[in-house]
């Protein structure tokens, strides 16, 4: 066994199979358990989609129906008549898009400077980034001064107010610094000897090597921004500026819609389904990105 | 470059050039980071020592420093205490449950499940990527006392479910369960990656020593998972201490404040009543709790290897 283990690829495969075999005797019950878990995890989303196609009468019936008696787009129609969902969608896209772009750009640049350049104050910058990792941007701890600041800058109820506090996150910088540290100095020095400036080294050599890392950071940041709630709720004061979660939460709490679950399920679909679709397409990157952020 | 200068002068010039390049790469970030992330952390502390309210935004002259009054007021405020207690419940029950279920799922998927592994992984992770607000709306629908799918299913099993969100006994446990449901996938993915990184030699050695399945798990797998579990626990705790969306959408903090959380109360005091100084003081107490809990976890989970 141990002889085989030292023989590289073939032995690795065998080792994995062996690992699987160790627990595999009569584990059908494990499949049942894990499948039940899957129903609990995915079921609510299925229930949401089914519910969005049911009439109000059918939603109120006891016991509830599983499949809609007849599929109807009525809830979505009412949703679009009463609430400007395309506008919320646009707001969320603009906000999450800019936050993601800014983070990817800043994180790679600052990560490079902290990992590979020597300059006065580097350690201080790094320390600042590490210290703020624990304090979530625009979370409960900082919303009060941020709101005062935005009022002073006359930015309340603007895209900029939502974007700025999330644009320069310490997490991405930290992640990219870890990534860039693994690039051997020889590669960079070779380019420098050839007369390349730091900007060229960064653009031509470092950036291309960061591909998977930046993709992971981008996905992660976009999701957080898309789902962000507290700060947009505080700083956006008029309906036409609301992002999707703020719009959904606001009308889910209003008396007239509170029990209108057809409308609420249609609204939830509008918030959740785009993310689920993107997730299913990019799921390998997603789980990889989380694993990467966790292991480093 | 600078070949004609004396070595010392060229060295100095090089240092200056390096500094210039370094700051060129970092200063755009630092400007935004400083103003909108770092500064507010300090400003929040300063505001917490004042009686800052709505009028002071346009005319800060009227603001007075009132020392620790906001803090003593908060600690005596029964609503703040209730919110702190509820948030504590969410962390004390939510974090271990999330870690435990995430651990169970990761071990099951890593060792027992070969077929459809990707499907299970994607399914378990699905709630993590979706908006908590939307999830809270969906669960509010499913937890309705009459005709809600949860109670209907319980009915099939011969049990009568309570009015989950309308009862001060069951509302907080429901919200904790929702938190666990949403976040266990995150823990699972972290630990799955950690499990796959464990060298097979450890297992071989355990086998040679005649270790049983449980012993292998207890003395080989679990210690090697400690860094991953520390990371998952810290991230989950920091998130749970700030819980807000679920009660905001599902119960509005009720019934009888039984689901009011710290972040919700900070939001209410700050942006309904505009007691901004008071809200900042409570936010800082939350900050201290986050720092203490993180430090504690590092001590407990790091030293026991």
Structural write-up:
The complex is a heterodimer of chains A (296) and B (305). With 296 residues, chain A is mostly helical. Chain A has two domains: 2-52, no CATH class; 79-295, MetI-like fold. Helix content of chain A is 75%, strand content 0%. Chain A has helices at residues 2-5, 9-23, 28-52, 56-60, 74-82, 85-116, 122-132, 143-152, 159-167, 170-181, 185-193, 198-209, 211-227, 230-235, 244-253, 261-295. In chain A, helix 3 packs across helix 16 (261-295), helix 10 (170-181) runs antiparallel to helix 13 and helix 13 runs antiparallel to helix 16. Chain A starts with a helix and ends with a helix. Chain B is built from 14 helices and no strands. Residues 1-5 of chain B have low confidence and may be disordered. Chain B folds into two domains: 7-62, no CATH class; 72-303, MetI-like (MetI-like fold). By secondary structure, chain B is mostly helical. In chain B, 75% of the residues lie in helices and 0% in strands. Chain B has helices at 7-48, 54-58, 69-76, 78-112, 117-129, 132-142, 149-156, 171-196, 200-208, 213-224, 226-241, 245-250, 262-271, 276-303. The chains are: A mainly alpha (296), B mainly alpha (305). The interface between A and B is large, with 107 and 103 residues.
């Amino acid at each position: 066994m141990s002889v085989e283990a030292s023989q590289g690829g073939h032995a690795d495969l065998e080792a994995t199979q062996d690992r699987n075999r160790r627990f595999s005797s009569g584990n059908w019950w494990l499949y049942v358990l894990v499948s039940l878990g899957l129903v609990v995890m995915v079921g609510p989303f299925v229930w949401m989609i089914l519910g969005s196609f049911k009439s109000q009468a059918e939603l109120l019936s006891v016991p509830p129906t599983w499949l809609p008696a007849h599929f109807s787009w009525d809830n979505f129609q009412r949703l679009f008549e009463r609430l400007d969902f395309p506008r919320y969608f646009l707001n969320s896209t603009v906000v999450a898009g800019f936050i993601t772009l800014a983070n990817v750009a800043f994180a790679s640049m600052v990560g490079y400077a902290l990992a590979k350049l020597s300059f006065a104050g580097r350690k201080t910058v790094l320390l600042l980034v590490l210290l703020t990792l624990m304090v979530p941007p625009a979370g409960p701890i900082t919303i009060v001064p941020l709101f005062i600041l935005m009022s002073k800058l006359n930015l309340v109820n603007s895209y900029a107010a939502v974007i700025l506090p999330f644009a320069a996150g310490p997490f991405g910088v930290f992640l990219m610094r870890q990534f860039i540290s693994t690039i051997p100095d020889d590669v960079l020095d070779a380019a420098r000897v050839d007369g390349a400036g730091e900007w060229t080294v960064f653009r031509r050599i470092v950036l291309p090597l960061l591909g998977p890392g930046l993709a992971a950071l981008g996905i992660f940041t976009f999701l957080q921004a898309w789902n962000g709630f507290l700060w947009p709720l505080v700083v956006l004061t008029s309906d036409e500026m609301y992002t999707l979660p703020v719009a959904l939460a606001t009308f889910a709490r209003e008396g007239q819609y509170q029990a209108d679950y057809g409308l609420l399920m249609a609204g939830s679909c509008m918030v959740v389904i785009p993310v689920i679709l993107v997730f299913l397409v990019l799921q390998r990157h997603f789980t990889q990105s989380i694993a990467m952020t966790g292991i480093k | 470059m600078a070949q004609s200068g004396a070595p010392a002068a060229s060295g100095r010039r090089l240092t200056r050039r390096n500094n210039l390049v370094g700051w060129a790469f970092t200063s755009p970030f630092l400007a935004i980071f400083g103003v909108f992330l770092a500064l507010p952390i300090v400003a929040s502390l300063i505001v917490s020592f004042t009686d800052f309210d709505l009028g002071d935004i346009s005319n800060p002259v009227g603001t007075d420093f009132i020392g620790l009054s906001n803090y003593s007021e908060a600690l005596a405020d029964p609503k703040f205490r209730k919110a702190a207690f509820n948030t504590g419940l969410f962390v004390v029950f939510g974090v271990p449950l999330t870690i435990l279920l995430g651990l169970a799922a990761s071990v099951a998927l890593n060792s027992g499940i070969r077929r459809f592994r990707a499907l299970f992984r994607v399914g378990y992770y699905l709630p993590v990527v979706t908006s908590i607000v939307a999830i809270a709306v969906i669960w509010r629908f499913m937890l309705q006392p009459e005709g809600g799918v949860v109670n209907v299913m319980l009915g099939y099993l011969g049990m009568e479910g309570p009015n989950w969100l309308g009862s001060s006994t069951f509302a907080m446990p429901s919200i904790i369960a929702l938190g666990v449901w949403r976040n266990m996938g995150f823990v699972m993915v972290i630990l799955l990656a950690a499990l796959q990184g464990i060298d097979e030699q450890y297992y071989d050695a355990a086998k040679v020593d005649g270790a049983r399945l449980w012993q292998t798990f207890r003395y080989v797998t679990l210690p090697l998972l400690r860094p991953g579990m520390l990371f998952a626990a810290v991230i989950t705790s920091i998130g749970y201490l700030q819980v807000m969306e679920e009660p905001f959408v599902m119960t509005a903090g009720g019934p009888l404040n039984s689901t009011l959380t710290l972040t919700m109360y900070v939001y209410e005091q700050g942006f309904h009543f505009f007691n901004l100084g008071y809200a900042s003081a409570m936010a800082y107490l939350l900050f201290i709790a986050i720092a203490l809990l993180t430090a504690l976890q590092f001590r407990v989970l790091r030293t026991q290897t």
